[in-house]
Amino acid sequence: MAPEFKLEQRQVQQLILSPQMQQAIYLLQLPLMELRQFLQQQLIQNPVLEEVEEMEPTATEEETLAELKKEDYEPDVQEEMERIAQFDRDWYEYFRDTSALGRIEADEEKRHFRETSITRPLSLQDYLLRQLHLSSSSPEELKIGELIVGNIDSNGYLQASVEEIATASSASNREVEKALLLIQTFDPPGVGARDLGECLLLQLGRLKKQGSLAAKIISQHLKDLEKRRYPHIAQALAVSLEKVKKAAKMIATLEPKPGGSFSSERNQTILPDLVLKKVDNEYRIIINDGDLPRLRVSSTYQKLMEKGNPDPDAKQYLVEKFKSAMWVIKSIEQRRKTVRKVAESIVKKQREFLDKGVEYFKPCTMREIADEIGMHESTVSRVTTNKYIETPQGLLELKYFFSSEVPMTNSESISRVSLKAKIQELIEKEDSHQPLSDQEIASRLAAQGIRIARRTVAKYREAIGLLPSSLRKQY
Question: What kind of architecture, by CATH, is found in domain 407-472?
């Protein structure tokens, strides 16, 4: 058959996210510190927006723009946001909520000082090169030493062989060994080692314990030490078990990763998005956004719009900026109310946990919370991502409150969070000389009506960060 071409008309429904919708979804996911940066950026990019210096409502934007057609400047928030969640659109409360305002000048100065005082941290390589330039006796040694330092990883270990460095530097193996021995005398102790054993021995050398029992254990029985085979070590070295245990404790004080303190992965400060306070036996959720800039439409540009502008391009520019400004202000308030609504539902569900502790943590899923507050599950997921709440049980990520259930023999269920707590409690109370195996833990949980397999116990134990019974045993 010959190919045939023809036109066919079909009607297809397709969901397209508008730029406003994408921004609203983006704002829902932002944690507090990133939201602050976003608002600061909006203040720079949009001249129509300005920061509210004092606690005062702004209720004249729509009135001053009444002469324009509504569709020219007023975003249809309800149509867009109903696809995300159904909640109140009364955004003027944003400016009346005193709990979210009240930034004082002293706090702002402190914050500005902290942000402008941050500098690049000193790297391990920079630290070693400084010592090398102070210690090196010749240009040749300096050249070899710089190559060695360049091959030391973030943990402080040398990742190239002596032969490879010798080839790259056109030097002899003896010259490289000499430069390496120099670098191994640098701070931090143990740096420049080629393996764990050498790292620990270098540190013992700094302590003048080269010929000690600890050094013999590291040199001859490091694998046995890792597996806590103390009786085997004692027998092999013809010493008492108590001496081996004492040496093992001393070795445990050494640093297996000497470069760890110079890691580029800096600890991140967590700023809670929400604070939970108990007042008159009731929990009150406080939105911790008092440090955020509060936005409004500039009165100066409102007056320009009132007077009118003969230049159509200038008028169109202002209309677009007004539209963007109004959407940002309303989206921020929508976000604020959504976060509060989700948090209130979570607190209601986990009231016993907040009052009494992890043993009372209830199984809870995002779908349950979404159904209760009339939102989509994906909205709850966005709201709880990378957001933290300060509670009587500590600083917790909102996603922490979601946990699937484990069935019990009495037709009830227990949350996985509570189950992990029970496993940890059993291990903490065990006889350290006869620690519980994973199977024994599963049996004890079964006696409490919790059906769980041995491999599941092992998985939860590892998630908690606890060692297997063979490595927990004390001699």
Answer: Orthogonal Bundle (1.10)
